[in-house]
DNA sequence: TAAAAAATACCCCTTTAAGGGTGATTTTTT
DNA sequence: AAAAAATCACCCTTAAAGGGGTATTTTTTA
């Protein structure tokens, strides 16, 4: 594992006040060492491999290449480095994109430096820290609509359809006849006001029915 | 919104030591009030509506009805109540199931009472608290495999297939011919060693390629 | 306990999609 | 310049999708 005593941090953040503030606080109130700070990814990319950081604190709103676009590149340059995202915005899409692309943690900028230092510690220990507002959005993205127009069986069948299964596979899996599956599918289409698998999946996902 | 001063908590947990311990600490070191504690859901279900709790702390490993099974019932009985799950285990499936079924937060039992009190506060303010190890698992479930055998285009097409789109819809969306889509699909099948949409989706999801 | 909702199953029908084989060109990356 | 990725086209057969209608049994709820 890593040696926490010497863990190296790099901060990529365009706002000089925030950048220097975090750097100062990490250096003076924690065991971690900020080895470099950069105002943009485009400046950082040529030097960051030499820094060999254990953790990168990456702002999303950067001039030039955005933090989101920088993420996959950084993961390729430094596969073992943990990346904690920082942002002022917190749209569900942005958060999910960042996490899907390899971010280890995600914080909004109203997060105190103490929490960020705690997050560095957590990330070094294999955790996945995020601020409560971010966690809320992630949880919401996992939650299903409580008052679905679909019955349990219909929801179950629609989920199987969404996994690419055809009628006969669904029938086999649920120990019912193909014709029964067909009837359920027809009722699903009527309830969702669609007339194809693709549209049913689209509507169901938009309304978090599946 | 809720009045934080009088927020009512119910604890459902079979271990008496843990149950009383959390209750004592919440009552004596926070502004929240534990109005009832129960050793199982089966005992709680008849009385909990009268308790009208703002937050329920729900153990997963309960005698009789498990916390996972109790979750949808509780959501129906008390739709506006926040539920924080507690567990000793932390399998990805269990966590995702709990969150998908309406849990507001998720903690493992090595979590300090202070963190639980903080979690109650966060949940009352609309946050979605979870312990770092849980957050890690949630993040992992969102992350894609970095070294996929599929090309970008193939991944993109497989994602559209997984959304139930057929060849012609994919062709339209990507501004390419149906025949090209077909070729990509054939190459996907060869790379994943499958010969159907359903199997391709299954293998791809198992390996987090999509 | 009676009514309503959900789940089950079968018949008709037509159109469309899926999957496999083979070969080839162009574009992009390395 | 070579390799990888993306593009397109023709052959073929079988399987699936979607729309229509009807009807029974089981489960849930009022």
TrEMBL record, chains A, B:
Coiled coil, from the record: none
Entries under PROSITE patterns matching the protein: HTH_LUXR_2, RESPONSE_REGULATORY
GO biological process: phosphorelay signal transduction system; regulation of DNA-templated transcription
Sequence ranges assigned to domain Response regulatory in this UniProt record: 8-124
Key word Phosphoprotein present: yes
Domain HTH luxR-type: residue ranges: 143-208
One matching Pfam family: GerE
Highest taxon in the source lineage: Bacteria
Keywords: DNA-binding, Phosphoprotein
Sites of 4-aspartylphosphate modification: 59
Entries under SUPFAM superfamilies matching the protein: C-terminal effector domain of the bipartite response regulators, CheY-like
SMART domains in the record: HTH_LUXR, REC
GO MF term set: DNA binding
Protein name: Response regulator transcription factor
């Amino acid at each position: 594992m890593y040696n926490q005593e010497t863990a190296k941090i790099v901060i990529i953040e365009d706002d000089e006040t925030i950048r220097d503030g975090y750097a100062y606080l990490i250096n003076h109130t924690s065991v971690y060492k900020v080895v470099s700070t950069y105002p943009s990814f485009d400046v950082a990319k040529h030097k960051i491999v030499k820094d060999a950081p254990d953790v990168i604190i990456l702002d999303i709103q950067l001039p030039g290449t955005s933090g989101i676009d920088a993420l996959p590149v950084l993961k390729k340059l430094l596969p073992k480095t943990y990346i904690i995202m920082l942002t002022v915005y917190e749209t569900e899409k942005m958060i999910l994109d960042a996490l899907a692309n390899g971010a280890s943690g995600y914080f909004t900028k109203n997060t105190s430096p103490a929490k960020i230092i705690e997050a560095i510690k957590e990330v070094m220990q294999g955790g996945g820290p995020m601020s409560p507002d971010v966690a809320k959005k992630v949880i919401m993205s996992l939650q299903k609509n409580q008052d679905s127009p679909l019955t349990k069986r219909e929801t179950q069948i629609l989920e199987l359809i969404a996994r690419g299964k055809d009628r006969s596979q669904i029938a086999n899996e649920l120990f019912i006849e193909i014709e029964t599956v067909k009837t359920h599918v027809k009722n699903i289409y009527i309830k969702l006001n669609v007339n194809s698998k693709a549209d049913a999946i689209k509507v169901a996902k938009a309304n978090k029915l599946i």
